[in-house]
Amino acid sequence: MNKKIGILTSGGDCPGLNAIIHAVVKCASHKGWEVYGIPYGTDGFLKLEHGKCRSEDLKLREHGYDLPGLLHGIDILQFLSGSILGSLSKGNTEDKAIAQTIIQGYQNLELDALIAVGGDGSLDIIYDLAQKGGWNLVGIPKTIDNDVPFTERSIGFRTAVDTVTSALYDLTFTAASHDRTMIVQVMGRNAGHLALHAGIAGGADIILIPELTPKIDPDLINDICIRIAQLRWSGRKFALIVIAEGVKNQAGEKEKYIGDYLAQQIDEISHKLCLTDKPEFCDLDTIETRATVLGHIQRSGTPSSYDRLLAAAFAKKAIDLIAEEKYNQLVVWQNGEVQTQPLDKVVAHIKQRHELGLCPSPVEPDGFLVQTARSLGIYLG
After folding, report:
1. Measured distance CA(161)–CA(165) in Å, rounded
2. For 114, phi and psi rounded to 5 degrees?
3. Domain 162-296: CATH superfamily, name plus number
4. How confident is the model at residue 67 (pLDDT cuts 50, 70, 90)?
5. Which pTM value belongs to this model?
6. 65 — alpha (psi -120 to 50), left (phi > 0) or beta?
7. Which of 3, 218, 221, 279 gives 20 to 30 Å between its CA and that of 89?
8. Matching fold, domains 4-156+303-355 and 162-296
9. Which of 332, 351, 354, 353 has the alpha carbon at shortest distance from 341?
10. Residues belonging to the active site
11. Rounded to the nearest 10 degrees, how much is the dihedral formed by the CA atoms of 152, 145, 47, 322?
12. 249, 240 contact by CB (below 8 A)
């Protein structure tokens, strides 16, 4: 039976979104289905209802990108970062009139099912709309934060880890050249997965994540300075620190530039330790601390082969679910294979954690990677 399905990307962008779109269209086309790309998340349904776009303009074809000249058929979509459909990280679906217009847009497009690619917040919002509108929904998790529950990996995470690891490699040499302590602030919201994975792979001496060091307090700074002093005492004059953006200041408040805040605290405490005249701290007065915020470069870059493979596998499973008419499922990666979880279970967990102000899928404090970091001598607080 031929089907007419939609696909949208919602929330912050990440590498691999276009790879998902690419794979969904290919898998669906081989079944003779039509695929419609909804622009800018659920806002695309608003645009349809307001006459700002036409349904026929949203139809996606198997080869979305052909290079000019003699290279007909060259398809580069899976290698592109960002999302050709556009994505919104915020939406006003609490307004009942707007929500109803979005629902009406879905119905008027006469879709048999919708594939929503999003993070924990997006999946929460879209699931609620789907319940109200009676949509046939399948979710695919994506986020560089890797904090969607019930899946070990989300699209975009591995590429972001590679990007941060590469940056740490480059920054190590400038830190070593000037005997500096280099602090690198990475994304992750309230989760430390990105900082932990990249920190280990990138050779960090210190990794600070919200699950282990929720806030920067004097004792933590003191321990960090002692760790730096130990490195300098051993003859190594530089250090590399990775801090996740979810770590808070001494007052327990979020800092936009927590890396700069940490650098200031290290400078102050290291100077005080130096004044104790203890020989192990005598070298701390020469510390130069620099903070670097990697920012949105972590969301960009060519998707890694792993993320492209994961995108293809997730897309194939999503199409299979629609073919079998098994809706309201989230495609996940568990125990080395693609599986599914009921969206009602996933969203209920997300809502519960959000209400408590907690990350839906944090780093396990005693997990194997945390143990690995400690075994390598990395200070985690």
Report:
1. 6
2. -130, 130
3. Phosphofructokinase domain (3.40.50.460)
4. low
5. 0.93
6. beta
7. 3
8. yes
9. 332
10. 145
11. 0
12. no
